[in-house]
Fold this protein.
Amino acid sequence: MQLQEYISLRPYNTFGIDVAATSFLEINDISDLEGIEADTKKLIIGGGNNLLLTKPVDALVLHNKLKGITVEKENDTHIWLRVAAGEIWHELVLYVVNKGWGGVENLALIPGTVGAAPIQNIGAYGTEIRETIDSVTFWYWSEKKLLSFSNRECEFGYRDSIFKNQMRDKFFITSVVLKLDKVPKLNTSYGAIEQELAHMGVTEPTVKAVAYAVIHIRTDKLPDPAQIGNAGSFFKNPSLSKSSFDKLLAMYPKIPFYPVNDSWIKVPAAWLIEQCGWKGYRIGDVGVHTKQALVLVNYGHAHGQEIWDLSGKIVQSVHERFGIQLEREVQVW
């Protein structure tokens, strides 16, 4: 455990924002957490994929590098896999689908680490990680010990969990237990998965085929952070009440939508943003991606505040046109 001082965080956030951290500590073992006091101001990062830095970080940055994958238990139908929080999420997905286990194949190529998955309740193509998480283990700062929450105790919601609310700043996730299917139940009806499988010549899909279909789709429309700085989807897809949506549909008959239940309808934020003319917008080194309006990008040396200011203009224009208040997904410092 070696504390570093006044280092650039540019390599540690996928937006590529160059700000300094007062102090920086890589966490490779749970014992590294024991000497850190609960009242220490902290910023915890994994892959830095859902993070926008708008100013220098006057805090202790903890870089989660915990590694390891072990089988907790299994039966004829399921296997419970404990995965350390510092493992790369996409590498875990590839590991799982190569074993033929189901549950995370629709979540392929989502950037970040395993520890971030339950905080954000990551989701894509009709699947959310809450459907697979059995439990989450974390270091609880105030008691200086490990605790575990069951799936129910995590209070998962759309891109939400207890870790973003009541537990904010009180924990450090160390591992996640996933309950995976030995007899997978494939979900290929969302988005373009079925079309991509057909294009791949797949007539009898497997978890591996679905994962690679998702990879192809995401690669085609989302920018690689190694090439263009970004944090993936910047905004959540808003959910509207049935009555509010019906009014919107009367005005915009071609609006895409996805029913959440009998009372709520989800509308793609990307469509709303694109209708307001933002797709492909660029000023200086800040812009909106040319293929995906949900993604804000840093073309080189943008400041985090510039990206935040652009997101504010987008939020305002969508609200003025559609009466919908977009909510940002990213963690902002």
Residues 4-64 form a domain with the Uridine Diphospho-n-acetylenolpyruvylglucosamine Reductase; domain 2 fold (CATH 3.30.43.10). The mean pLDDT is 93. The longest helix spans residues 304-322. Residues 16 and 112 are 14 Å apart (CA to CA).
